[in-house]
C-alpha cells in the first residue's frame, strides 16, 4: 500500500529515472525529441560525465554543453543540428560523432572544432551534406570523398579516425602538403539572383556592334580578310590533385569584303 502511495506522489522521479541512464561516468539521454539539452541534466551530471549520448533527439542547439567540462566522448547522431551549431571549449573531448544531422557548411564546422576541441582524435560526419560520400548523395564519388578527407585532416591533423575509416599516414602527409587546396568555394545563392536594376530597356544582352541601319539582313556590307582572335583559358586538371595549366589559343578566320546587291 505504501509503495502505491509513493508511486502516485512521485511519478516524475520514476519517469526521469526511466528516461536518463547514468553509470560509471556514462550519461545517456536517447530518443526524447528534445531540441536542446535539458537543464536538469547539466545541473545533475555535468561535473561527473565523461561520455554523453544524445542520439535520436531533435537537437538544434548545444546550450549547456559548456558545463560538461570533463566530457571525453559525445554522441550526437540523428539530430537536427545545422550550420549554426557552435561547440564550446571542451579540452578533454576526443570523440565526436555527428552522423545524420543537417550540416552543410564543412568549413565553418572545422574552424569551430579546431579552435574549441583541441584533443579531438575521432570524428564522424556521415549522413551530412558536408560529408560528400554516397550516404549523403548518390552523385558523390570516391574522389569527392577523398578530397574531403584531405581537407578535414589538414584542418584537424590530430585525427586518427575519420568517419568509418582509420586515418593513414599517407593521408596525413598529403593533407599537410595539399589539403589547403582541397577547399571547394561555392557561389552564394544571392550571387545567382539577377540584378534588380536591370530592366528590359537597359538590358544589353542583345547588344550588336553593327549600326542600326545595317542590322537588317538585307542591309549590310562586310569585309573579307584575315583576323586573329585570341582568348585566354585556364584549365585545372587533376594530375597530382593540384596542377594548373594556362595557355593561349589563336583562332584565325578569313573575312572578305562584299556588299549585298538587291
Automatic annotation (TrEMBL):
Positions of region (Disordered): 193-214
Biased composition (Polar residues): 205-214
Domain of life: Eukaryota
Protein name per its UniProtKB record: Leucine-rich melanocyte differentiation-associated protein
Lineage: Eukaryota, Metazoa, Spiralia, Lophotrochozoa, Mollusca
Amino acid at each position: 500500500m505504501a509503495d502505491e502511495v509513493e508511486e502516485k506522489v512521485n511519478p516524475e522521479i520514476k519517469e526521469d529515472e526511466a528516461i536518463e541512464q547514468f553509470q560509471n561516468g556514462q550519461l545517456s539521454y536517447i530518443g526524447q525529441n528534445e531540441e536542446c539539452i535539458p537543464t536538469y541534466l547539466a545541473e545533475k551530471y555535468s561535473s561527473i560525465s565523461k561520455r554523453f549520448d544524445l542520439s535520436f533527439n531533435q537537437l538544434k542547439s548545444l546550450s549547456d554543453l559548456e558545463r560538461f567540462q570533463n566530457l571525453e566522448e559525445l554522441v550526437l547522431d540523428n539530430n537536427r543540428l545545422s550550420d549554426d551549431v557552435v561547440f564550446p571549449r571542451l579540452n578533454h573531448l576526443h570523440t565526436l560523432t555527428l552522423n545524420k544531422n543537417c550540416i552543410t557548411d564543412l568549413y565553418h564546422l572545422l574552424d569551430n572544432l579546431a579552435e574549441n576541441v583541441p584533443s579531438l582524435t575521432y570524428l564522424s560526419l556521415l549522413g551530412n551534406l558536408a560529408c560528400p560520400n554516397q550516404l549523403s548523395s548518390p552523385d558523390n564519388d570516391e574522389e569527392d570523398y577523398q578530397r574531403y578527407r584531405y581537407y578535414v585532416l589538414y584542418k584537424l591533423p590530430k585525427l586518427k579516425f575519420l568517419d568509418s575509416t582509420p586515418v593513414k599516414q599517407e593521408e596525413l602527409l598529403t593533407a599537410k602538403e595539399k589539403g589547403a587546396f582541397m577547399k571547394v568555394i561555392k557561389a552564394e545563392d544571392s550571387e545567382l539572383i539577377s540584378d534588380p536594376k536591370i530592366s528590359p530597356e537597359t538590358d544589353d544582352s542583345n547588344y550588336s556592334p553593327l549600326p542600326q541601319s545595317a542590322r537588317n539582313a538585307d542591309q549590310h556590307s562586310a569585309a573579307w580578310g584575315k583576323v586573329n582572335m585570341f582568348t585566354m583559358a585556364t584549365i585545372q586538371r587533376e594530375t597530382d590533385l593540384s596542377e594548373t595549366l594556362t595557355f593561349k589559343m589563336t583562332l584565325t578566320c578569313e573575312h572578305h569584303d562584299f556588299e549585298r546587291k538587291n
